[in-house]
Write a structure and sequence with these properties.
Layout lengths: L2 H24 L17 E11 L5 E12 L5 E13 H4 L8 E5 L4 E3 L22 E4 L4 E4 L6 E7 L7 E4 L6 E10 L2 E7 L5 H10 L4 E9 L7 H19 L5 E7 L5 E6 L24 H14 L2 H19 L4 H22 L5 H6 L6 H11 L11 H8 L8 H13 L3 H6 L1
Parallel strand pairs: 1-4
Antiparallel strand pairs: 1-2, 2-3, 3-6, 5-6, 7-14, 8-12, 8-13, 9-10, 10-11, 11-12, 13-14
């Protein structure tokens, strides 16, 4: 290859790089998260500074310097750890300026002490060391607010273990990377932007799967369409709705955690720490299918407005949260396939009751006794009919079609087949066990 050809290739490559850099520069900047995970189960420091831990009986409390960390294993938890601390009496506590410390509230069991307690009664204060170098730590089990709970301009959430999708192009701050990671959802009064983390690569997903762990995979920013301020209670309500919706789309728990509120100058006004518990949890990363097609953005964008509208109706919030709980438990098959079948039918029965009776389509007597509704499979069939969902068993479900064809009232009907399978599991007579 002569020098002229090499120069042409170099010129072409330079032009191509210029085009690529231009495309990256024109892409919107990704939402900068407060917390991120470059590898599975990477702990996130939420706070570092002065802390007050109040005893349940309020006779003494512990003050000092430490940090608060989001830990993932063996299960997600938020821990605090103080390496320099001292105990003081309740009388001394009253003299402390609360603005200088982060109060962790009163709890019977939130504090785990890794040291012999220091008795610091007021009369013996001078005989005790000013600070202990032993570790004083525990788990946070009550909500904590860092900062002031004033209304804010926008709120950021950090989403755990959410699947990838092909969204709009975004770039990092150094303009060195471009990826399809953004979706924007508008509904009611909200605009919600969700960005995939810069570190949510194929390698990270493979490590999450092999290690069955956790990571912050996405960050969301919520603001009002009219630009009005967001109260803390509004942020809490939106976080709850997103928790159930995002988890519903994944078929596993994928919560938005560690919210932070920002003012109009993009400075943090408050951070909220919600403790992990049985009703606020995350599922370890796993390839578990759901109704949402892989890499789909339309399913997320198109379904949230309808979900959110129902979520805000008083009669719907509790059934929705309960059904999603059952759906995820069944989809994960944590207690086996049989339990999942039972739970799935319970979800359909719940919605048939809410939609048919509570929404006023039929009265209670008709729902329970009319020939069109007087069996569980008929109730589920009426539910599916109301949404124009076919009840026939798809041709590819060969085994289910064969099972249904052997039933007494066979009509190639899916709900009938599922109900009979469920009955065979629950009413485990020898005949039923043989049937299923």
């Amino acid at each position: 290859m002569n020098d002229s050809a090499i120069l042409k290739i170099l010129k072409f490559m330079k032009k191509a790089m210029s085009i690529i850099k231009g495309q990256i520069s024109r892409a919107p900047l990704t939402i900068e998260p407060l917390h991120s995970c470059k590898y599975p189960n990477e702990a996130c420091e939420i706070y570092n500074g002065s802390i007050v831990v109040e005893s349940y009986n309020a006779d003494v409390c512990t003050i000092g310097c430490g940090n608060i960390i989001q830990q993932w294993l063996p299960e997600p938890s938020i821990k605090y750890c103080m390496t320099k601390h001292k105990q003081i009496s309740s009388m001394e506590r009253a003299k402390i300026n609360n603005k200088d410390y982060l109060s962790l509230g009163k709890s019977k069991s939130t504090v785990t002490i890794h040291m012999q307690p220091i008795s610091l009664c007021p009369t013996r204060k001078n005989s005790q060391p000013e600070h202990s170098s032993s570790t004083f730590s525990g788990a946070i089990e009550e909500p904590v607010i860092i900062g002031t709970d004033k209304p804010v301009q926008f709120v950021k959430f950090h989403i755990v273990n959410f699947n990838p999708y092909e969204g709009q192009g975004i770039r990092n701050s150094s303009k060195s990377r471009l990826w399809k990671g953004r979706i924007i959802i508008c509904c009611d009064k909200w605009k919600i932007t969700i960005d995939a983390s810069e570190f949510f690569s194929k390698e990270l997903r493979e490590k999450l799967l092999s290690e069955s762990g956790y990571a912050i995979t996405h960050v969301a920013q919520a603001e009002k369409l009219d630009g009005s301020p967001i109260s803390l209670s509004e942020s809490d309500s939106l976080q709850d709705a997103l928790f159930y919706f995002l988890s519903f789309t994944q078929g596993r728990w994928a919560p938005p955690i560690l919210p932070a509120g920002y003012d109009e100058t993009e400075l943090i006004t408050w951070k909220r720490i919600n403790p992990w518990n049985s009703s606020w949890c995350a599922t370890k990363w796993q390839d578990r299918g759901s109704w949402l097609p892989t890499l789909s953005t339309e399913g997320l964008i198109d379904t949230f407005p309808g979900f959110f509208a129902l979520w805000n109706e008083k009669s719907w919030k509790q059934p929705i949260s309960q059904a999603i709980n059952w759906y995820i438990y069944g989809n994960l098959q944590q207690s086996g396939l049989n339990s999942s079948i039972i739970i799935a039918q319970a979800c359909l029965e719940l919605f048939s009751w809410v939609i048919m009776f509570e929404n006023g389509i039929v009265d209670k007597n008709t729902f329970n006794n009319h020939q069109k509704y007087n069996t569980t499979s008929k109730k589920i069939n009426r539910l599916l009919e109301s949404f124009n969902i076919p009840q026939n068993i798809p041709h590819e479900f060969v085994s289910l079609k064969r099972f249904e064809s052997g039933l007494k009232h066979s009509k190639n009907n899916g709900p009938y087949a599922i109900v009979e399978i469920r009955n065979s599991i629950v009413h485990a007579s020898p005949e039923n066990r043989e049937t299923y």
